[in-house]
Amino acid sequence: MTGAPVFLDAPTVRRHLDPGACTHVMREAMTALSSGEVGQLLRSFIPLGTGETFAIMPAALSGQGGFGAKLVSVFARPDGKTHNGLVVLFDRESGQPVCVADAGEITRIRTAAMSAAATDALARPDAARLALLGTGAQARGHADAIRRIRPLGEIVVWGRDCKRAEALAAELAALDDVAIRVAGSAEDAAASADIICTVTASTEPVLHGEWLQPGCHVNLVGSSGPMAAETDTELLRRARVFPDHRPHVVAHGGEFLRAVEAGEYGEDRLEAEIGSVFAGTAPGRQSADDITVYKSLGHAVQDLAATAWLYRKLGTNE
């Protein structure tokens, strides 16, 4: 295999990485990760300053899926865009780089698609009320992805910036047959929700366990490193927590680490990885009253699987 790698810029990724197809790709990728069919190292962080980090995330997919890494900067910005970088995919047979994709757009789509897959596996079948805590690109992506796997009747939006929450609600109002409401507080948004997605850049808890009703499912998404926690320890104590990848959550899961440091939680309390639930080798929800949590950190196998799917779909035609 010769020639320059195919470059997939953000508009190309946005046009062709279908959220529904990506949800299927994420199920397969995480099932393979939990079964040991793929190789993945812990991500490496290089702090660059307050709210600024560079991360390297390597992995090798199963079979002829390829190998590579995501190189990503995470910078807190007023416009809400935080992730910038590249996903570099290498060919398994030749060892040559074959595709370079915009990491920000890959991350945006695959993160929401993965939450949708986890929600489909863990949320009650009749879950119909979604609360979005956060107002950025991931909030919009999660609304779209979650409504594909559950017939939502209501979406409640909360954000620390009321104007941004109202703007997101106005954007979501275009969805058919879904009532959209802006909540005055995070507690108000969470109190009646069947599904909650925390997609904030907050380093301190925005969601408290005492607010949740029995049977609720939570996707903890926004805190992707050890220095941030979007929920308190009470939520972990009340819930059955399913990590995306146990070694990463134990090393880098901010909510988990704070609870362990406080002496109020332990690794033995974590449930099976979500990939094992997908595979049917571990139980997911066991009763209608279970509070379930999917702890998302995001992984190179997800980025590479999405990029490999796009590369196979588009080849050298883009």
Overview of the structural elements:
This protein is of the alpha/beta class and 318 residues long. It is 36% helix and 23% strand. The protein has 11 helices and 14 strands. The strands form 2 sheets. Strands 1, 2, 3, 4, 5, 6 and 7 form a 7-stranded mixed sheet that branches. It has a 7-stranded parallel sheet with strand order 10-9-8-11-12-14-13. Strand 5 and strand 6 form a beta hairpin. Helix 2 crosses helix 3, helix 2 crosses helix 11 and helix 3 packs across helix 4. The longest helix is centred in the middle third of the chain and has 20 residues. It is globular. The relative contact order is 0.18. The mean pLDDT is 93.
Structure characteristics:
alpha/beta; 11 helices; 7-stranded parallel beta sheet; 318 residues; 7-stranded mixed beta sheet
Fold topology:
Elements: E1 6-8, H1 10-16, H2 19-35, E2 39-40, E3 44-49, E4 52-60, E5 67-75, E6 83-90, E7 97-102, H3 103-122, E8 129-133, H4 137-147, E9 154-158, H5 162-172, E10 179-182, H6 186-191, E11 195-198, E12 217-220, H7 233-238, E13 240-243, H8 246-252, H9 254-261, H10 274-279, E14 292-295, H11 300-314
Parallel strand pairs: 1-7, 8-9, 8-11, 9-10, 11-12, 12-14, 13-14
Antiparallel strand pairs: 2-4, 3-4, 4-5, 5-6, 6-7
Helix pairs in contact: 1-3, 2-3, 2-11, 3-4, 3-11
